[in-house]
Amino acid sequence: MSEYIKDIDVKASTILENNIQEDIAQNNLNIKYFYICPSIPEYQHQWLWDSCFHIIVNSHLNIEYAKKEFETLLKLQEDNGFLPHIYYWKGNITQIDQLVRKYYKFLSKSSITQTPILADALCSIYRAEKNIEYIRTYIGAVRDFYDFLYTTRRNPVDPISLLNIIHVWESGIDNSPLYDAPLNIDTSKEKLPSQWMKALLEQLNILNLCEWNMEKIFEMNFFLFKDILFNCTFIEGYRLLAELYDQLEEKGEAETCIKRADEMETILIREFWDKEEGLFFGTYGNENKINKVKTSLSLIPLILTNLPNNIAATLVFDHLLNEEEFWSDFPIPSVALDEPTFSDQETGLLWRGPSWININWFIIKGLKKHGFENVALQLAQRTFDLIEKSGFSEYYHPQTGEAMGARDFGWSTLVIDIKKQLFDFDLDFIFDKEWTRIKRLPGF
Ligand code: GLC
Questions:
Q1: How far is the C-alpha of 373 from the C-alpha of 230, rounded, in Å?
Q2: Rounded Cα gap, residues 18 and 321, in angstroms
Q3: How far is the CA of 170 from the centre of ligand 1 (A)?
């Protein structure tokens, strides 16, 4: 094992510590905040899912930081459970912030949310401390956020009763080609970044015209994406909440969470599994249209607890390990290599090709869950290779492993969780093993 990897905890701690933001809010709310921003200088505000990833990592490295960041996330929660995707604690507002903030309901936070990882964050704190009183204090707020999504983001008249995201920023997979068609982005035309910018603002404008009222938003029928990542993390989040309720001996609450998770998981597999392609695709609009672009999100259902073995094996053997699609030298490309929209260029548009550590983290967990231990280890090894080669970057070139986007990026420290929680055994084993060829085993 290299010296670099031996020292990785210290390196990750340094990045997270350097990115700490702590003060009293610059708006008139007079609230004390503590969070780790994704990267200085690119991203100085607090982002919901970034913070959850930082909490997961700091549950291993510095539990006090983890708890303070978690508690800060809840400070702007609305009565109905809503949590914003961005918290504007600080005064420094960028040009883009200025453009978008005029559509939001408040100046202190955005009016859209982000992929739910909050239950994972609370669970990590519990695993680190085993302090049931802490869970008792905060589980209600976390549950409120999940219930908010459950009650407001499923369209009562839609036959596919899954969650809709109302803006691309809600998934966190900003400019993915998955969203080109729903936003009428024409890739054959020039000026993709400006088409995208227009679309992002247009989306906010429509939400604002609907007064952020879900009934009107469903009626307007613009975008409404049933995102795979958003729904899968949500389903597994309810399961994690159920585990915590079991610890609290609140059986009824645990059962409700499991029941909802099971129902939604069944719908997701039934509706979004494309047998012919052997991949998952979400739908958009009230008509449930499909945009069949192969992205890393098509593999995310691997995290689902009850995913049938044959489906998991197809995702792994036919796609993840396919060198023409997702098994690049430094996987997992956010868009399959053989997609016409795949791009490894730094264009300002995110999620159109490069590899991201948080996606690898999800997939490694899914692989372990479904017994693909060997593949999980290989993906973990390639993920460590990325960090060793190019540090903690925002994203990476999927073939060369070069650093792309922002540097010293918070959630890329998720490799610590991969190491500590998923592979808490002899690290030399990961790095020195002669890998056996991965084959489809009988029964899969
Ligand atoms: C980019 C990412 C998004 C993330 C944000 C802050 O917009 O696409 O997922 O939350 O940066 O890191």
A1: 25
A2: 36
A3: 10
Residue-wise pLDDT for 195-247, tens only, equals 999 999 999 999 999 999 999 999 999 999 999 999 999 999 999 999 999 99
Indicate the residue type of 405: G
CA dihedral 213, 215, 219, 223 (to 10 degrees): 60
List, in order, residues 6 or more apart from 245 with CB less than 8 Å away.
Answer: 139, 251, 253, 254, 257
Q: Residue 194 and residue 141: Cα distance in Å, rounded? A: 39
pLDDT at 171 over 70: yes
Is there a cis peptide before residue 300, judged by omega within 30 degrees of 0? Answer: no
Q: Is the pLDDT assigned to residue 274 strictly greater than 60?
A: yes
Half-sphere exposure of 205 (CA within 13 A, CB side): 7
**155/354 Cα distance (integer angstroms):** 33
Task: Find out whether the beta carbon of 410 lies less than 6 Å from any atom of ligand 1.
Answer: no
Is the distance from CB of 211 to CB of 247 less than 8 angstroms?
no
Q: pLDDT for 55-104, tens place per residue?
A: 999 999 999 999 999 999 999 999 999 999 999 999 878 899 999 999 99
Token couple for 354? 């490069």
Give the tokens for residue 360: 């690898």
Ligand 1 mutation target, pool 117, 350, 413, most atoms within 8 A of CB: 350
Instruction: List the beta bridge partners of residue 403.
Output: 396
- Which residue bears the tokens 């999980």? 376
Q: Where are the domains of the chain?
A: 302-444
Tell me the per-residue pLDDT of 38-56, one tens digit each, with 9 for 90 and over.
999 899 999 999 999 999 9
CB atoms within 10 A of CB 277: 14
User: CA-based angle 59:64:66, to the nearest 5?
Assistant: 45
* Structure confidence at residue 437 (pLDDT): 45
What is the average pLDDT across 146-151?
Answer: 98
Determine if ligand 1 sits within 6 Å of the CB of residue 84.
no
